[in-house]
Amino acid sequence: MKRRDLLKTAALLGSLSLAPKGLAQGAPQNAPALGRRYRNLIVFVYDGFSWEDYAIAQAYARRRLGRTLHLERLLARYPSGLINTYSLTSYVTESSAAGNAFSCGVKTVNGGLAVHADGTPLKPFFAAAKEAGKAVGLVTTTTVTHATPASFVISNKDRNAENEIAEQYLAFGAEVYLGGGDRFFNPERRPDKKDLYGAFQKAGYGVARTLEELRASNASRLLGVFSDSHVPYEVDRRFQGVKVPSLKEMVQAALPRLASYRNGFVLQVEAGRIDHANHLNDPAATLWDVLAADEALELLTAFVDQHPDTLLILVSDHATGVGALYGAGRSYLESSAGIDLLEGQKASFEHMQRVLGNNPDAAQVKEAFRAMKGVSLTDEEAQMVVEALTKKVYRPDGVRYGIQPANTMSWAMVQRNASKPDRPNIGWSSGQHTASPVIALLYGQGLRFLQLGLMDNTHIFRLMGEALGIRYQNPVMSEEEALEILKTRPVGMRHPADVWA
Ligand SMILES: [Zn+2]
């Protein structure tokens, strides 16, 4: 073994010791190097995206749209691998600890942004890139102040402190912020009545709050906030006439602005609501947000083709819910029917809840499922949904389904007849995040023969650093230290339902 490899192995074993108990001797992982530099960096995070989501979207694209996913074509030709996702103190991570691993290169506890459990701030990668003269952009379908984008630019011990994070964004001064979260910027909605829109304008930003304003803006620095909370699901934008920009349209607005900066840029794009749809166990919302991400991905790779000094890193931060298409019928011959039945699903549970309100009757529920999910509920199933919406009686029983009433709405339309499927044969493990390894993929010049293999999620930080020639080390905390701190000061996750809401 070469000396360089020995050192690499030593570093790798060091990072493995940070794994939650019982994994210290874990599987060997790769620490691949790019072997070259880039001027621009794009990190595309598919939040809560599992291989089961990939499989369903891939099959839907082939069977119903008559094409392959752009992601499928990239997987076939470019370096891809897996990342382990566990946080410092849990095999099941959430988005801020996963975001910290990417942006800070160290494991943290769940719940804080670029910060250790004792409050020690970490330097997020985009902050270092900004110091090195790079323009910075954040584009997401969640609130723009949400965990995954925020963990790349600022530190905060509470990922849910989004009012404060909006102010931290103003101080940070990225060139482009696009996403949802009006209530964190609007003086009429903020508890402290501060006018963040006005403050951003004063600081030289153009502010866009609709698709039209986004298209019309010629501001070089841009804040775009397109919804009260998260940007509505793609399935509702596409089929229910909800008027917001698509992820692709937001990326389209971000790229030329960032590309106009002389020293290059860093951009995080997040398909943030794949995670939410999976929490809700909503097959159509998941599918269409994956397809929307795929359209944005195609645009991003076209940009890389025209700007070969750009590296694109695509990662998921963890899997969520894991709605899997399962085998149905004799010799599994009925399995693919589930894909075709998804075509009749034209709205998210989120949208259906808005339409149904808090006090629907069984007939209204039946009509909503027929029109928007293509499913004929039985009287009993419709009553299950009525009770969930009106009396907060939820199904199925058990702690793993915590995102209500949506998990009950999903449960009401599960497949009942395996031999003659009239509903999608998609089964969910839970309404929560899960522990499985997830996708990592690189796209850029000079990478075709790179092997990624199985990496730790913290290695994304090292790849970004190598790409831009920005190297530093954040302080490391051990699991024992973190657990000791958490005993006396329980920071971190709230109720699972609050994690994404
Ligand atoms: Zn996440």
From TrEMBL:
It comes from Thermus aquaticus (strain ATCC BAA-2747 / Y51MC23). One of its GO terms (molecular function) is alkaline phosphatase activity. Residues 1-24 form the signal peptide. InterPro entries: Alkaline_phosphatase (IPR001952), Alkaline_phosphatase_core_sf (IPR017850), Ap_crown (IPR042085). Its EC number is 3.1.3.1. Keywords: Hydrolase, Phosphoprotein, Signal. This is Alkaline phosphatase. SMART domains: alkPPc. Belongs to the alkaline phosphatase family.
